[in-house]
Fold this sequence. Notes:
By secondary structure, this protein is an alpha/beta fold. It has a domain at about 45-265: Alpha-Beta Complex (Spore Coat Polysaccharide Biosynthesis Protein SpsA, Chain A). Helix content is about 50%, strand content about 15%. The chain has helices at about 1-40, 65-75, 95-105, 120-130, 155-160, 180-190, 195, 215-220, 225, 235-245, 265-280, 285-310, 315-340, 345-350, 355, 360-370, and strands at about 55-60, 80-90, 110, 140-145, 165-170, 175, 210-215, 245-250, 255-260, 375-380, 385-390, 390-400. It has a seven-stranded mixed β-sheet with strand order 3-2-1-4-7-5-8, sandwiched between helices. The mean pLDDT is about 95.
Amino acid sequence: xxxxxxxxxxxxxxxxxxxxxxxxxxxxxxxxxxxxxxxxxxxxxxxxxxxxxxxxxxxxxxxxxxxxxxxxxxxxxxxxxxxxxxxxxxxxxxxxxxxxxxxxxxxxxxxxxxxxxxxxxxxxxxxxxxxxxxxxxxxxxxxxxxxxxxxxxxxxxxxxxxxxxxxxxxxxxxxxxxxxxxxxxxxxxxxxxxxxxxxxxxxxxxxxxxxxxxxxxxxxxxxxxxxxxxxxxxxxxxxxxxxxxxxxxxxxxxxxxxxxxxxxxxxxxxxxxxxxxxxxxxxxxxxxxxxxxxxxxxxxxxxxxxxxxxxxxxxxxxxxxxxxxxxxxxxxxxxxxxxxxxxxxxxxxxxxxxxxxxxxxxxxxxxxxxxxxxxxxxxxxxxxxxxxxxxxxxxxxxxx
Length: 400
């Protein structure tokens, strides 16, 4: 009897909390939809002072699938004054050979050399590239090598920098596994949650795979100093700008398409790594997400338990918990169609995943949060790091 009363108490406690959280989430999803629609309708116009000189910096490592095509999309940017720089640690890296063959002699190549053990390899490479940028470059644009962008991508990132108070503009990725598959589609659904929580009031985080920052803001914020002793280039860049009182504007129209497949264990390890980095560099964000997912998934589990016990009243809160979230997943698919009109055929084939796989993605989020709460160790591009704090990291291993 006592156990039954305890289950009933927990059921109503978690169910009511989860329903209220779901309704709040639907409201935020609606704001994201309206923001994305408004951004998609805004014409691209040249800044009043003209297009500033841009340095595009791309770190590479390893001959990842689609690398040549990804780099080609960056090399074909329709921009009047662009200097493209590829940075790396090892001249013998296969990615460097591909980049040289793809981008040709007009691209600048910067070899950063072997990084010390107290800094992430990517940041080490980025620091070397920034220091090698020509003095006449007014804007720094950072891109990853695993995404493809439209020809006007840099124009879209750079144009809003003219607005007062904006230190940087940023985008985010969207996974388009060309051959579908359960795990690749689940990864896409899982990762599509992040753009919907990006702030529309210029308080987003600067995603490292697609960020433009004025060089003056970069220097004023002391980003190179914030990068020292870190692994996360984007979250430390965000913190530097925030501490300097500068905003970061999220631009859904500049999102980056990534392709390729993944296996289940690879995806789960990647999800845990993302959550672990967030835990170390944005603990409050991580804690809020962890607690909300514990409550949300506990409510689902208790609803199922009540149904197994024959209490059909649990169907009502379970529906209120699941269906709005699934509908929000469908909304994300619609936003994807606005941002990536050239991916219409892919969405017609696989767009269903954003509705039907959303409940399962929620449990993957819970797994990632809980697992990341038990470790500060990550593996990234062949190197293993212990994330001691925001400003201290130690490389502890390496694999081929």
